[in-house]
Structure formats: structure tokens, C-alpha cells
Amino acid sequence: MTDKACNVCAFFDGAAVSEAAKADTAGLCRFNAPTFLTEEEMKGAAQWPVVQSNDWCGSFEGQAA
User: Fold this and answer.
1) 3-state secondary structure of 35
2) Which end of the chain is least crowded, N or C, by CB within 10 Å?
3) 51 φ, ψ to 5°?
4) Alpha helices in the chain (DSSP H)
5) Among residues 37, 57, 64, which one has the least CA distance to residue 48?
């Protein structure tokens, strides 16, 4: 497990997860702009990517102390 996981990243928003994706280990990644994932979803609003708290990526930035 990495110490640069989503749940300790400055871009992780664990409080704003939609009801459909709500889980203790899920959150939204606020690094990139919201996007549509499929053509069907383009009929609705774009959404922030839902990530698991133990996910990670190359855009990690630690939270301010």
C-alpha cells in the first residue's frame, strides 16, 4: 500500500460522494474537471470521478498541514 493514496490527497473529497456511489471508502477526485463517461451519461450532467480511498495516481498532492 502506498502512503500517497487518494484519502490523503489534497484533491480527494470524501464528503461530496453521490448517494449512488456512497461508501465509507469512496470519494470524488477534484484534480481534473468533471466529465461524461458514456454517450448515455451525456444526457445528464457531467460528474467528478469517483475513486476509492486507497486508489492512487501520479497527480498526488499532499494535504496542507
Assistant:
1) strand
2) C
3) -125, 160
4) none
5) 37
